[in-house]
Amino acid sequence: MKITIVTVGKLKEKYLKQGIEEYVKRLGPYAKVDIIEVSDEKAPENLSEAQMEEVKQKEGERILSKISQDAYVMTLEIEAKQLTSEKLASHMDSLATYGKSKVAFVIGGSLGLSDEVLKRSDFSLSFSKMTFPHQLMRLMLVEQVYRAFKIMKNEPYHK
């Protein structure tokens, strides 16, 4: 399986980079993982609704340009379906069974995802009703993808 994580913004925190690198390394036997960063738009605190949509639109165009046409797209959204780790594993396993070997996860910027990205999504996934920094979501996502592969292979997960 080929996993692509498309995310808005640069990851600056060394400790998050190290954690992500560790899980990507652990995923090596199961999947090829690419993490693609697209630049974020500068968004001052007091944007109008129209300006917020423009920011999401620009970021959305960058995101969509990095997703292959044949990829199954899973967007991370607060108001989406929440899954257990076992259900995520089952979902990913069924994708592989039915020939969907390219999976793209999308993590938006601070304002969320554009309507175009949401329309391209095949599955909307929520980790929680809480809001997390998108940098931290990268680490949480690669950990859960790793956990999903361990579950699919009936292998113990070393904490």
UniProtKB/TrEMBL annotation:
GO terms for cellular component: cytoplasm. GO terms for molecular function: rRNA (pseudouridine-N3-)-methyltransferase activity. It is found in: Cytoplasm. The keyword rRNA processing applies. S-adenosyl-L-methionine binds at residues 76, 108, 127-132. Its EC number is 2.1.1.177. Keywords: Cytoplasm, Methyltransferase, rRNA processing, S-adenosyl-L-methionine, Transferase. Gene3D superfamilies: 3.40.1280.10. InterPro entries: Alpha/beta_knot_MTases, RlmH-like, tRNA_m1G_MTases_N. It catalyses: pseudouridine(1915) in 23S rRNA + S-adenosyl-L-methionine = N(3)-methylpseudouridine(1915) in 23S rRNA + S-adenosyl-L-homocysteine + H(+). Pfam families: SPOUT_MTase (PF02590). SUPFAM superfamilies: alpha/beta knot (SSF75217). It is an enzyme of class 2 (transferase). Belongs to the RNA methyltransferase RlmH family. Specifically methylates the pseudouridine at position 1915 (m3Psi1915) in 23S rRNA. NCBIfam families: PRK00103.1-3 (NF000985), PRK00103.1-4 (NF000986), tRNA_RlmH_YbeA (TIGR00246). Homodimer. PANTHER family: METHYLTRANSFERASE (PTHR33603), RIBOSOMAL RNA LARGE SUBUNIT METHYLTRANSFERASE H (PTHR33603:SF1). This is Ribosomal RNA large subunit methyltransferase H. It comes from Halobacillus halophilus (strain ATCC 35676 / DSM 2266 / JCM 20832 / KCTC 3685 / LMG 17431 / NBRC 102448 / NCIMB 2269).
